[in-house]
Write a structure and sequence with these properties.
The complex is a heterodimer of chains A (about 180) and B (about 210).
Chain A (H helix, E strand, L loop, with lengths): L1 H12 L3 H23 L5 H14 L10 H22 L21 H14 L2 H12 L4 H8 L3 H21 L5
Helix pairs in contact in A: 1-2, 2-3, 2-4, 2-6, 3-4, 6-8, 7-8
Chain B lengths: L2 H12 L5 H13 L1 H16 L12 H39 L2 E5 L2 E5 L25 H65 L4
Antiparallel strand pairs in B: 1-2
The chains are: A mainly alpha (about 180), B mainly alpha (about 210).
Chain lengths: ~180, ~210
């Protein structure tokens, strides 16, 4: 896949607009999923996904062929998500009402949709450094060495963060009555 | 490996991120520890639960991206064009300033700018500018004046030369006279010496 990406980028830089469209069709879902995990259920996933690929289009000359396209894509997406988070901190927005707030009280078991909402909320409540590592390891199946290059953090540190993130998710689900 | 060590490594064990040696030690501890086995099962359930997270369905609007990119590039071109015009105008002004070399003075509440005027404080050592002029059409009056001046210069030259000749002749005469005087003085001295010698001999006889 990396070879295909490199070929598409070469054609795109050579003036083939169709090659860029092919890249977008291949990566729009993984990129949107990645942004959704980082931004949480209330995040503007569609808007930021659009912005992400606009930046990719404008910054084509910044891509270095020795690195993988996916790493570059995730880096740009990560920066977008972090910028959005910084702006959101200055302007806090309330969570939508349909997202359940699950605390430590005894709660009845929820349906699968509620589990989904619980997971979404739990991910959103994780501190950003822990959330990023968890999302990249579990959803994007990135190994810690590659993750270290992307986040510019040592792999050993990322492994520690991942361990903490998993335990926090486990505790959150247990508190909501899941996976006891 | 004890329970605390294993607990720190369980997520990595589940995801296959431990080294072979660490995996062996972890599995060895799990074989004998029911509490850690329960912890492992709970984390595996959490691992599966994560797959329940929302999967967004997003379709990127490609024409919008192309349109926005074109608009941004057009804006960038307009900015560069404005910058180029401003830079060119500034360069033209600087060039005109250097060519005109105005004399700018501030004083008495006034700002005076002059150009094409000679400054009073040119240093003496400054070399005269090289001026190349095209030959102008000949003027008859000017030619007459030049001819008269040439004749005057020639006359003065001749006069100077004749004066020089006269002075040289006078000098030769004076030198000749001086020579005569010198010779005459020598002759008188010689005579005087002879006379004195004769008187001495007459008075006192020959010298022994």
């Amino acid at each position: 896949m990396a070879r295909d990406d490199a070929e598409l980028i070469r054609r795109w830089r050579g003036g083939d607009a169709g090659a860029f469209d092919a890249l977008v069709r291949r990566w729009q879902q993984p990129a949107a999923r990645f942004l959704a995990r980082l931004l949480g259920p209330a995040g503007p996933v569609a808007d930021l996904s659009q912005e992400l690929f606009l930046r990719i289009y404008l910054w084509r000359d910044r891509y270095r062929e020795e690195g993988s396209f996916s790493t570059w894509l995730y880096r740009v997406a990560l920066n977008l998500a972090r910028d959005h988070a910084r702006k959101s901190e200055r302007q806090p927005t309330p969570l939508p009402e349909e997202v359940p707030v699950c605390g430590r009280d005894e709660m009845p078991r929820w349906e699968h949709a509620e589990l989904r909402d619980t997971i979404d909320a739990a991910l959103a409540d994780l501190p950003a450094p822990l959330r990023e590592v968890l999302v990249l390891r579990h959803y994007e199946e990135m190994n810690f060495e590659e993750m270290g290059r992307l986040l510019e953090v040592p792999a050993s540190t990322l492994k520690s963060r991942f361990t903490v993130a998993m335990h926090k998710m486990h505790e959150r689900l247990r508190d909501c009555g899941w996976n006891e | 490996m004890n329970c605390d060590d294993l607990r720190e490594r369980l997520p990595l064990l589940i995801y296959g991120d431990l080294s072979p040696e660490e995996t062996r030690l972890a599995n060895s501890h799990l074989a004998d520890c029911a509490a850690c086995q329960r912890e492992r099962e709970a984390l595996i359930a959490t691992h599966h639960s994560l797959d329940s997270a929302t999967v967004p369905d997003v379709a990127i609007d490609l024409p919008s991206i192309h349109g926005r990119a074109l608009a941004m590039q057009a804006r960038s071109m307009r900015r560069w064009k404005r910058f180029a015009i401003a830079a060119g105008s500034l360069a033209a002004c600087l060039l005109a300033f250097l060519l005109i070399r105005p004399d700018v003075r501030v004083g008495d509440g006034q700002l005076v700018i002059r150009w094409n005027s000679k400054t009073e404080q040119q240093p003496q050592a400054e070399q005269a500018p090289i001026v190349v002029q095209q030959p102008q059409p000949r003027d008859a009056d000017l030619d007459e004046r030049i001819r008269v001046l040439s004749e005057l210069v020639q006359v003065l030259t001749l006069q100077m030369e004749s004066n020089d000749q006269q002075r040289r002749e006078e000098l030769e005469v004076l030198i000749t006279r001086l020579d005569l005087l010198r010779i005459q003085s020598q002759q008188r001295w010689d005579e005087t010496k002879r006379d004195v010698s004769a008187l001495y001999t007459a008075q006192f006889g020959r010298r022994e």
